[in-house]
Amino acid sequence: MQPQFATDYPALAPSFSVGDRVRVRATAPLGHIRTPFYIRGHVGEIERLCGSFPNPEELAQMRNGLPAIPLYRVRFRQKEVWPDYKGPATDVVEIEIFQHWLERA
Amino acid sequence: MKDQGRYQPFTYYQLMETSLRELLVEKGIVTDAQVNAEVAAMRGRTPERGSKVVAKAWVDGEYRKRLLANGTKACQELGLEIPGLNLVVVENTPQVHNAIVCTLCSCYPRVLLGIPPDWYKSRNYRSRMVREPRAVLAELGLSIPDTVQIRVHDSTADMRYLVLPMRPKGTEGWDEARLARIVSRDSMIGVAVPSA
Fold first, then answer.
1. pLDDT, tens only, B82-119
2. What is the CATH number of domain B48-189?
3. pTM to 2 decimals?
4. Is B107 an annotated catalytic residue?
5. Residue A91: which of B135, B150, B155 has the nearest Cβ?
6. Which of residues 104-163 of B touch A (CB under 8 A)?
7. In the structure, what pLDDT confidence band is assigned to residue B2 with cuts at 50, 70 and 90?
């Protein structure tokens, strides 16, 4: 799968492909986390591979964040995220999530 | 109210900014001139930069494809200076309406749209846009029929987003400059749509 943005960092290999169903890990480590709380534990679908970028959790600790981690855009059904969502079942929210926050669903 | 005169004490954040800036200048890491130039550049960037990109995509189908494939390269093609921007362009269609939010902070394509509006940074918009986007859009004056899918993009990491709105009816034959004038900042965030 081609990333949308090519970067030249040493990077981990992508483990997911477009269309794969993934679950966001439901964990709450301390530190600078770019995975919003509201999406943890929810299941979505890989929309695209953005590229590989330094891990922000490491960057926040003044380290280099390498190897870079594949970053995906993941598409979630609103009704799956919010069971009482008022709106059509087709509505979605799409979020960038780093690979180490995802597991196969 | 009693006249308090011209002097007002610094707020907490003003004091923090001034202290940090003065220390960086004192240590020779940046100069006052560099700081001023950066602030001037930031203020000089306006949403017209984004409007130009949208208008070009409206009149040139091949450019539109390149813009959707790689927003960064397509902006550079127009000679826009966009350091550090990984731009994802999402396209509105008769079936899909897109809107942008950053729930974690206030990520925004500043180098393309300038300084974000205050409401974009508000806790109200940031928390409700992912939870009840249709209600938020309606409050902002935009009703989206239930037959149209809403895609909300939460800008959480390294990407920045721009909505490519639909070209409105009644603009046939307009040139790029005239089209660009009807592309508002809000339509590129996805909380409004352009009209002729």
1. 888 999 999 999 999 999 999 999 999 999 999 999 99
2. 3.90.330.10
3. 0.93
4. yes
5. B150
6. 104, 130-135, 146-147, 149-159
7. low
- Mean pLDDT along residues A94-99: 98
Establish if A7 belongs to a structural domain: no
* Confidence (pLDDT) at B6: 78
How far apart are the CA of A96 and the nearest CA of chain B, in angstroms? 6
Quote the number of domains for chain A: 1
Question: What residues make up the domain containing A72?
Answer: 21-104
pLDDT of residue B23: 97
Distance CA B102, CA A74 (A): 15
Within-domain flag for A12: no
How far is it, in rounded angstroms, from Cα B6 to Cα B9?
Answer: 10
Looking at residue B1, what is its pLDDT? 56
Name the A residues in 30-69 with CB < 8 Å from any B CB.
34-36, 38, 50-51, 53, 56
Q: Where is A92: in which H helix or E strand?
A: strand A92-98
